[in-house]
Amino acid sequence: MNIVGKKVVRLDGYEKVTGKAIYGDDIQLKNMLYMAQKYTDIPCGKIKKIDISKAEKLEGVVKIALHKDVIGQDKIGPIRQDQFVICKDKVYYSGDVVAIVSAISKNIANLAANMIEVEYEAGKGVFDITESAKDETLVRPEYETNVVVHYPLRKGDVEKGFAECDQVIEREYKTGFHEHGYIETESLVAVPDPTCKGVKVYGSVQNPHTTRREVAKFLGLRLNQVDVRCSNLGGSFGGKDDTVNAVACRVSMLAMLTGKPHKISLSREESMKESYKRHPYLMKYKVGFNNDGKIKSMKVDILADSGAYSAQSFFVTWRSVVQATGPYEIDNVSTDIRAVYTNNTYTAAYRGFGSPQIIFAQESLMDEIGELCGLSPLEIRAKNGYSQGSVTASGQILDSHKVSLSEVIKKATDDIKYSEKIAKYKKFNAENDRYKKGVGLACSFRGCALGAEGTDATSAIVSVQQDGSGYVWTGLNENGQGLRTTFAQVATECLGMKYEDMHFLEPSTAAINDGGPTVASRGTIMGGNAVLNAANKIKQRIFDANKDKLGVDSLDDTTWGNGEIIGKNKISFKDACTTAYFAGYNLSAYGWFKAPEVSWEEETGQGNAYFTYVYGCQVADITVDTHTGKITVNKISAAHDVGKAINHLGLEGQIYGGVTQGMGYGVLEHYNIQNGVVKSKNFDEYIIPTIKDIKEISPIIVENPDAIGPYGGKSIGEPTLELGAACIANALNNATKKRSYEIPLTLEKVYLGKQLVKPERASEAHKGSKDVKDIISNVTMLNPKSLSEACQMLTSNKNSQLIAGGTDVVIELRCKQSPTTLVNIDQLPELKGIAENGKTVVIGANQKINEVKENSIVQKHFPALVEAISTIGAKQTRMRGSLAGNIANASPSADSLPPLVAYGAKVLLVSQNGERTVDVDKFIVGGYKTDIKEGEIIKSIILPIPEKNYEYSYFQLGRRGAVNITRLSLLTMCAKNSSGILESVIISCGALFVKPCRLQKIEELLINQKLDSALIDKAENLLADLIEEQIGGRWSSEYKKPVFINLFKDSLEKFI
Amino acid sequence: MIINFTVNNTKYTLDVDESKRLLDVLREDLGLTGTKEGCAVGECGACTVIMDGDAVHSCLIMAGQLEGRNIETVENLEQNATLSKLQESFLKHGAVQCGFCTPGMLMSAKALLDKVPNPTLAQIEEALEGNACRCTGYKPIVDAIQNVGKV
Questions:
Q1: Is 0.90 topped by the overall pTM?
Q2: Do B19 and A107 touch (CB under 8 A)?
Q3: Could you tell me what percent of chain A has a pLDDT over 70?
């Protein structure tokens, strides 16, 4: 093969590295108006009144539309149409939209949305799936039950199976919501189209034909009156479907009502609130097995949170029912899965689609069964795992493709040196108290494409020009995964063209027939076949036109490659195309591929669910800090059977990305929603993996070409994500001998065995909090030339505040509605400089954190300060944020404060009334509160050079590898004399109490003593009392108290 | 207010809305849409540009703070229809998938390489810790930066 199987640079790479690629928000049209969405202020209840009178009067507002203005069908949804695009008389979740605003600017639209007043009658709401399943309070009374869908699967006789087993165990597993975290939020543009009295839609659309269908329904139009075309998608992962459809409906409605183009781009906060997530699952597994490890019987009962709408629950939970018992041959299976309505954020497709949850459960269970039988994770899987000809839970015989489960397990475990590490870490863990290491594996089988969940067919057009160049376009869409590239490879491989001669066109829905959605990892296997189908038609025609020149009678006697066609004679592809063109041949062809037959019995859950499957295994190597609960992922080896690698580069990229998302799902990503109120508002509170969160990923590509896939290729997108959480959870158990039955494995989950979040009282949730847009408006900027002018401006302007680097101030501006005057001191020379001044070092207030960090004077005298400020925000934050700003913001978790307090730093304040100096410790009076007086500016920070020779120990705890809001920090500085007596002890803490401070009582206990374990125990008791006294009643103290004590002891032990 | 500043080697005198951020000025006033907004709170790095040599969040700099500043955006990397080595390396190593974080990634990487032509892994990780990518798992991006010299 010439192109397939090679490392190919992506077709759309150039536009993306030059900033020229157009995404939804980049579209700018003449006379374009902007839409803002007024969200509900409460998660659940009746709408009593919507008052738009104030908002309407705002200058620049063009139109405000409500439910009464809806032209067509008011509800949308893929199966059950249960989502009101604009709420009618009830709200069902925090992301519901009650009104939409059209205005001449984005800011005016948002300001107007803020001015819409809605009166509600708050509902009780259902936020717990177990409660919902009881059907005592109906979320959607019109459907008579909260159960959206129920899939049963019955194979054999589970009860008889259990009776025959040596051991029967029951376990319960829980997974949370999971946000897609695409970096581009939802962004759409709608343009009235007078040619068909319809509308054109552009933007971040994953499935344009689905969007077209929903928009047409909502606007009461025929399908041919709506034309949808995707822009480049800034990530989707299954996420730019249902929510995008709803937003597209609304923005199209405004375009139709006003006759003007409209745009909307959601803010991150809006996206977090409105967009659907991965379903949380509650999974009960009962399993019977013999002492030799052979599993005989398994009963699975799953509840899935569908949230306020049914959306894709019908499809997501179906995949779960097929795969719930994993790649294991079990004679007796009974599975039931139900998705239920709640008033939580609704749930739908997310890469993996109902598999990461069940894989976490079943792979945890497999390890545990192994332990009970004295078998290793490898042995228990070898005993029960699928092999060629195995029969699945749905009764499907796996004989039409290579069942490569054992191969992927072997390759992944060999790569990570699994058995060697098991032994090595056992020894390590026996010798180490705080840090424990572990390895864990997870494996899966996964049905490719849609399977029996729906009609599975797709479209492609290949068009070759007379000069030998070509186009390909398809009913499936580029989501960022590399589909354009893969399809171009398939087409050019078939036609023997040069890869660079093929161009991928992003079609509008009018240009190609509905090829189904770009989901279910069906791009390559389905779309690739459609492309191949089209290309082969053209190939035959080109051959027919050039038969005489080639000197052979049959296409089979030719080879096509490198831009040439070789028969008896050789001709260039270009010349062959020219000949065919002038001979009147049609060099465009429509390709179609319909998936092979599959089957499903609804009542029994039996049938050939998918026409082929892929197999994968991932193994994690982790380190656990048992004193904090923090997991560090050292390596993940990921072996995936893809049939045939079409583009090695893209394939490896899929593995790297999927593994990283899987790690986020398993460890970091906790979508905090309480009584329907979304607390994870932005990427500061919902944390996704950074570049520092997985040390190594090893992609292992396994190839067993599939009989049906194009060139043998199958799937890769979703399998890469579904295993990470499961293998990390098993590694955690291997490391700590403590099994977690719930993900994500947050600090608190690992340390305490439970998630810990700030509780929201139900009564508060009912009241809700007004939906206010995060926008910046009403800012006046003043640029003083000197410090004295700055002081004067600050004093003489009402509502004025300082801005330097802006890394805190600009974020706060987004939440502020009132007029603000900013006095910009960013570049004032009087505030610059770092100087050693006798016994002190003076740091100018405008010194950026990075400048302080890299300054040799500071490095020499205040190494703990350098270490502590190195973890403030991201590099970009440290390039802009100033040390003085970190002090002035006075966050309880400000990283500069524990060392500044420890070193006895002072701030020099200046105002029109003169100067004053205050200890940093006294300057900070509480959380986000300082002693700064009106009109005062921090001029410099004065640090006394330590007289003693201190040794120090600093520890900062964050949830992930970088860009953390510090969870706890501790600085210990000790100076000992020659006989080991502590002559000086300074201990300061961050993120523990309302403000960073020194622990003076502890210091007093330790001073002039010699450290030993008895003294440390004494100090520990005192510290425990101190913490109890100050934060004992707070929700977070359950975690912070014991963990801080651990850190404290670890720190002191270093000085013994 | 009127500001005088330089973007991609071109001097501008602009009358800007004081409620705008550098990001808005670039995208709306100058039509330089290569720089993206992902979170608006300095958490994702999609808006990263280079200001006076440093990689910074353009979502956290107000328009009124731009007087005399020198800004470089992703649009400046390709010169005379030739991609920079960094861009070539990103393509070659598969450092781009959806491409939305790419402009910010490139600018963080360029700010680093301008100061440290042969960075260590730790320096690369530090420079890019504030640039979130949901597609690539970061590895291809690290490879691309480590191998710029070999393009």
A1: yes
A2: yes
A3: 99
Dihedral angle computed from the Cα positions of residues A684, A689, A694 and A696, in that order, rounded to the nearest 10 degrees: -140
Backbone angles phi, psi at A746, to 5 degrees: -70, 170
Confidence band of A765 (pLDDT split at 50, 70, 90): low
Q: For A472-529, what is each residue's pLDDT tens digit?
A: 999 999 999 999 999 999 999 999 999 999 999 999 999 999 999 999 999 999 999 9
* A256 and A219 Cβ atoms separated by less than 8 Å: yes
A574 to each of A132, A466, A471, A497, A541, how far by Cα in Å? 65, 7, 14, 9, 14
**Span A554-580, average pLDDT:** 98
Say which residue the tokens 């420079």 belong to.
B127
**pLDDT band, very low/low/confident/very high, at A767 (cuts 50, 70, 90):** low
**SS3 (DSSP) at A955:** strand
Task: Give the span between the Cα atoms of A1027 and A772, in whole angstroms.
Answer: 36
pLDDT of residue A763: 64
Say whether B134 and A661 touch across the interface (CB within 8 A): yes
Interface contact A237-B134, CB threshold 8 A: yes
Nearest to B1 among A20, A185, A781 (CB): A781
Where residue A768 falls among pLDDT bands split at 50, 70, 90?
Answer: low
Q: Does A655 touch chain B (CB under 8 A)?
A: yes
Q: Which residue of A has its CA nearest to B124?
A: A691
φ, ψ of residue A845 in degrees (nearest 5): -60, -25
Chain B, nearest residue to A648 by Cα: B94
CA proximity to A872, closest of A748, A958, A998, A996 = A958
Contacting residues for A885 by C-beta, under 8 A, at least 6 apart: A804, A805, A807, A808, A809
Measure CB to CB from residue B55 to each of A180, A185, A875 and give the nearest one: A875
Per-residue pLDDT tens digits for A962-995: 999 999 999 999 999 999 999 999 999 999 999 9
Q: Measure in Å the smallest separation between the Cα of A813 and chain B Cα atoms.
A: 9
The pLDDT value recorded for residue A761 is: 67
Coil vs helix vs strand at A655: helix
**Helix boundaries (H) for A697-761:** 719-722, 724-736, 747-752
Q: Using CB atoms, pick whichever of A232, A268, A827 lies closest to residue B40.
A: A268
Cis amide leading into A863 (omega within 30): no
pLDDT band at A895 (very low <50, low <70, confident <90, very high): very high
**Subunit contact A25:B37, Cβ cutoff 8 A:** yes
Which residues make beta-bridge pairs with A227? A200
In this prediction, residue B62 carries a pLDDT of 98
What confidence score (pLDDT) does residue A454 get?
87
C-alpha to C-alpha distance for B48 and B46, rounded to whole angstroms: 6
Determine the distance from the C-alpha atom of residue A1036 to the mean position of all C-alpha atoms in its chain, rounded to a whole number. 25
Q: Which element (helix H / strand E) includes A911?
A: strand A906-911
B35: chain A residues, CB-CB within 8 Å = 19
Tell me the residues of chain A between 52 and 71 that have a Cβ less than 8 Å away from chain B: none
Q: What is the per-residue pLDDT for A132? A: 98
Sheet with B70-72: strands ordered across: B10-15, B2-7, B70-72, B48-51, B54-57
- Taking contacts as CB-CB distances below 8 angstroms, the residues of chain A near B42 are 807, 811, 873-874, 876-877
CB A47 within 8 A of CB A98: yes
Q: Do B94 and A779 touch (CB under 8 A)?
A: no
Q: Which of A620, A617, A640 is nearest to A695 (CA)?
A: A620
Scanning the structure block, which residue is given the tokens 């956290």? B60
| Chain B hits for A107, Cβ within 8 Å | 19
CA distance A40 to chain B (A): 22
Mean pLDDT, all residues of chain A? 97
Q: Chain B within 8 Å of A187 (Cβ-Cβ)?
A: no
A-facing residues of B in 8-67 (CB < 8 A) are 18-21, 27, 31-46, 48, 54-57, 59-65, 67
